[in-house]
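Q: How do we represent a protein-ligand complex in a form that can be generated token by token?
A: Start from the inputs.
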Amino acid sequence: MKKKIVLTFIITVFSMAGEYPQGKLGEVVKLGEDIVNHTDTNTLSKPYVRSQLQCSNCHRKKGADSRAGTAKTIGTFVGTSTSFPAYSKRHKDIISLQNRIDGCFLRCMNGTKSVVNTKVGIAVESYITWLSTGMPVKMSSKAPRTPLKIEMWSKSRKKFIALFKKTTHQNYLSGKALYVKECASCHGDDGQGKGTFPPLWGSTSYTADGSMAKLPNAATWIEDNMPLNNTHLTDQQTADITLYINAQPRPEYRGFKVEDNFKKLGLDLEKIKN
Ligand code: HEC
Ligand code: HEC
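Then emit the structure tokens for the protein with heme C bound:
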């Protein structure tokens, strides 16, 4: 909790993105903002995605009339650009902010091809960088995240990995009941979303290799963000709901499947579900 207060403080003090930049740069920042909010309908970004998600579904707004990625939760974009270029274990190399953005296009949004150095990639990079206006640069040698986020993610992931390793079919049943009670009113009994409420599984959702498909990452995000404007779930409730959602079918990513995320934690998806 203390760490969360520090994150909130840092975002509040350093986030100075107010006026759009002048000229062409301002236009491109605005374009990036529109893509982040309307990823599957903006005419430039639409051909790059197959999901019906918006970046802003996970990198949320603080309130209805605020900007995508400014919610003071673990998915915030405020501060993000200060840690790039950064070391990435997945790439075993130094990656740029556009490479990181591309990872979410491909794996979260079920992307069709790379956005790096396209109009889309540069526009989203411009928008996300603008959100860190005034914040000190601190390139990251450990992971493509700010040092504070590295600490928060790893602590919370550790906590959830311990819970997931003990998972049985009972946790799946409890997750299903909790899903119906806490989440289905917005995301639908079938997880397909409704209107502006985004899908949680199925062909229009994030892929099996997206960050949100990884059980410990998803639990970390969900505990900090959902149910909408009413976060109150315990660690165990969060783990059970996450287990239920991420056991449902979703697009593969280059052969990586839903059950592979369970195998990683020593779990057998079939046994958990049946
Ligand atoms: C289904 C949820 C989801 C969607 C949709 C999504 N992301 Fe992400 N994104 C995540 C999660 C979860 C993380 C954190 C993962 C981690 O750090 O391990 C993340 C991390 C990032 C980061 C690194 C942020 C930081 O400060 O470390 C960037 C940049 C990013 N996403 C950009 C995007 C863009 C651009 C889009 C839209 C094209 C997008 N994301 C769509 C879930 C999502
Ligand atoms: C009152 C409506 C509401 C409820 C209840 C709700 N959500 Fe959401 N959820 C949203 C909205 C709206 C978004 C998009 C983010 C935003 O607009 O701030 C979202 C986004 C998400 C996302 C990321 C985007 C995606 O589709 O993958 C996940 C995961 C999620 N919710 C899980 C849950 C879980 C789990 C519960 C129950 C514990 C829950 N939600 C309850 C409205 C709701």
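Residues 53, 57-58, 60-61, 182-183, 185-187, 197-200, 206, 212, 222, 226-228, 241, 245 surround heme C (ligand 2) (CB under 6 Å). The radius of gyration is 18 Å.
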